[in-house]
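PT: before anyone asks, these are the final sequences, not the draft ones from last week. 408 residues across everything. Please model them as a single complex and drop the result in this thread when it's through.
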Amino acid sequence: MTQRLYNKDAIYQNKLFDTTSLKIQKKKKYIILPGRLPPLDVEWISAVANSPAKDSGYTRTYYSYPAKFQAHLPNALISATTNPGNLVCDPYCGGGTSGLESLLISRRFVGYDINPFAILISHVKTTKLEVEKIFDILPEILRTRTIPSKSIFDDGDRECIGDYIANEIDSIACNIESYISNRSHKNFLKLALIHTIKLIGRRDFTEKMLKSKSLFDHLPSRSSIPIFEKKVKRMLLGMTTLPRPQYKPRFVCASNHNMKIEENSVDLIVTSPPYKDLDIEYGLIQLQRRELNRSKRSEVIFRILSVDPVAKDMLCGKKSDSYWKNLAGSVKECKRVLKIKHLALFWVGFKSELDQETFCDYLNKNGLSVEIIIPVRLGHDRVASSRSTHHGKETGMMKRDCLIVTRS
Ligand SMILES: C[S@@+](CC[C@H](N)C(=O)[O-])C[C@H]1O[C@@H](n2cnc3c(N)ncnc32)[C@H](O)[C@@H]1O
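LR: through. Structure below.
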């Protein structure tokens, strides 16, 4: 990837540009990289960070994990700051964006996340499957109607989406468990099913969404099956383009406070930690029904995964002072595993100037010295109220997002 791929002027056109960060930026023109890599042009990083691009290609669009990276940013950063075969680590890997990008450019990768759903998405996006096998099994999973001993929906969920759809989804979930023995196939279909429930739960869910072609022509107008089929087929199409990896990324479902990674072995950390004092639904799905004037948070994801729900507070990195304590534990581990003089890049947003300063203090105190802070502009396709912008408009929730470049 050439460093001139992005439009330099984009940084100056960004209305959200923060002048404080600009001052810091002007001081530094280049970031020196370890090894024989050429120095990084700071203007180039700014241009990359401020040229939002809608994710597309490969398995990138399988599921939009809350507050996810826009894939072009980790891709450009990993390409420019490491060599093929180097080890990249994302201690808050979420839906596996940096893991997939590492796979695509032949870097070794290890990611940690405490959310089992994040780890499932990461595995599915980076595991090459034989498409025909899923195609073959699909009709059986959809045709056989099974009544499970326990529904994945509670009464409130059922009131929102209706018994007919709830029973259909229960049956598909049950069939995935009982008809499929291959774990990767199972995970693939579970992710497609969770995405289907997400679509069905949307406020703008209408019968129009249901009128797509199905293997079955006898379905009533309100059926979830055509949506599920369409999602599976789209995902399979993406799967055909996924290369066989030279290095299979490793994803671990555990806290990053105690990573099983050798000391001084990681070439680059690229990550997006939770944002302080923000409520993000990393594990719940919203089921909304305009006609019922109802909106409900459902724990269906954890039930489909057959795991205990993880407390929202934990996934969001805890609130107030506990947030800093939690962060310190992670930063210490990042410092331990990272090679001396190598970079750790944090993409994060802050509600206040003070939070940004405190965050940087924690990095500095724990051995990752902040070299530069670069503002990040988000794309119009962002549907994350967690971020500084929502569909391109400022949310007022965050001062802005930024990329903090640190060195061990
Ligand atoms: C902003 S998201 C990361 C999104 C990711 N960059 C992506 O592209 O999908 C932050 C993640 O940190 C995880 N997390 C929070 N505390 C953690 C901890 N102590 N150890 C590991 N993961 C943690 C959450 O579960 C969440 O998935």
